[in-house]
Amino acid sequence: MLDDGGVLPYVYRVTKYDPADRDEHGHYTGAEDTVSDHGQVEGAYLRAIAAFAADTGIERLAVREPQLPAPCLNFGLEPPMDGFGLDGVFPTGPDGFHDGAEVSVDTALDLVRVMLRDGGAWCRLEVEDTFAVHVGWDQYMYIGSSRPCETAVVKARALGLFPERIEASPYDFEPEDEGPQRPADDEFWDHLRWSMQWGNSRVLEEQYAHNSARWHRLTPDTIDTVRAGLAPRARLGVWPDLSCDIDAVLATLPAEGHVECVWQDREGRMHSVGADEDEFPELSARLCDASAAMILPMYADDRVPLLAAVMPDSDGVVRARWEIDSTPSTRKWALLKTLQRGGIITGRVTRIADFWVTFVHIGGVEAMINIPELSWRPFNHPSEVVAVGQEISAEILDVDPIRERVSLSLKTLHEDPMPLLTGLIGQTVLGRVTKLVPFGVFVRIEEKENGFEGLVHNTELGDGHPDHPRLGVQVGDALPVKILDIDPARRRITLSHRQAISPGQDEPGA
């Protein structure tokens, strides 16, 4: 009965069943009915809860993990109740039945009455670390408190009920270790807007209780309005847009099995319904007036939205305890949240794009290394630096959670060798011509294939005719050059052939 998976120190099973009427297996064998009498016994349950609440000193409780029955199904032993019994319970209507809704003890008792009568609605009623009420099958009640509540125990017995001390409620919340919950915060909505702009993310599923959802068709003009009207702590799923080709949608119906159909009528209202193969003809008839629709699978393993998140509280903290759907985007988000600029990460090179950007798989995300971040040294193609399938380590330069992009640098993990060459300034070396350009020639000054290259401007090639300063110079020629300057910050090396072959020329006093 605690959020961390623990239990309250005092937990009681409160029932109308006399423990003396249980067999050796603990099964009740007495004459009490397993449904509510809508009268004296039901009233005794409610008065007992009120007594435990008074003994604990609480006046308000929170609705946790609200549930409604699946469409068209009713597992209760009593006839279905209009509005699942919630009509009139909340001042704002059934929309008040959401996770985290705070209710008075009187409203909590109304909810307990609904659960005792199998109205369809179910929830945990709790005060964190202090109090909890859980209603189980067959009129079993579980009350937990931070206090012994001795007066309430006596009163429950006087009411004809049987309170028994137990270790824990079988309806305690058991958290699933599924990883972090993605909040539907500003970052999520920015991601959704970007996805709408560049993709087909258009339909929002708002699950405000288990088995119950509202649907919204999003546009850039309506997304803020929809966001403002979502239920607190709702679980969100983002789906592709509806199709206006209704015949094509109906053609996707399977031969058998359950599906969910979501559609928009010609007045712009959204609808959804579950159906199996026996109900497909009726479903087809209902879609005659639809302007757009889509078919979704009902089974969780096949039902994967594009994006998923859960609404945080007003302070930005996610307190809803149900798990969001696991999607590729959610898994990417969880990984991106662990990445920090300046961090070192290991991955495997997956491909080198036509535009020479190198992509590296680092888990659920394909990061990229732009050309300038591959190496300090010059190269003609990224394949000279890395190979597809190679495992590399790189530094994280930037993380963009909106576009799900990670930029890496391979070269920052290595020392820049260019500053080491500054000691050569003023010396003459024999270099190799690598490139001819209109304003001069490039010469490699190191004896290695990826050695640094410097520019010999036309004015520094020689004393020949100014219109033909490079006359006779070819790629591959050995050319003596004097190193005039090395600028590591600008990645520039300035050379002179003229001064190399005429020592002392252009020097002070020459």
From TrEMBL:
Pfam families attached to this UniProt entry: S1
Domain S1 motif, residue spans: 342-411, 426-498
Key words, A-Z: Ribonucleoprotein, Ribosomal protein
Domain of life from the UniProt record: Bacteria
UniProt record, GO biological process: translation
Family: Belongs to the bacterial ribosomal protein bS1 family.
Protein name: 30S ribosomal protein S1
Organism listed in the record: Streptomyces hundungensis
